[in-house]
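Quick one: structure tokens for this chain, please?
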Amino acid sequence: MSEDRLRILKMVEDKKITAGEAAKLMAAMDTPGGTNGKARWLKVRVFEKNSDKAKVRVTVPLTLLKIAGSLGGKFSMMMPDEAKAQMESKGIKLDAESFEDIEKLFDQFAVNGQYKMVDVEDDESGDRVEVYVE
């Protein structure tokens, strides 16, 4: 069993998500990216100077963002009031509607299979960070 599946099962065990939410996450993992113009993954890759091999890889199922949105009230309760106020002052909301909007935006980006949202290179070290949906 993959590490990601074990993490999902652990979240169910810890009552952080429901079995139904876990099933959706696992189904999203089984669906290849870009299918039907739907974004499935948010990926972050960090590369060292002059290397095409990623030093750090982070892959998050976008379904997790939707589930996080449905748990928005729970996230808000865990956040310090000062952090919530700072986020809201910058227009960032942790509610289901906001996460649905983000998911729709990612789907629009991923029409051609992959969309690179961020590509940053450090001039001094030459390290590079890419963030994309697929």
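Residues 33-133 form one domain.
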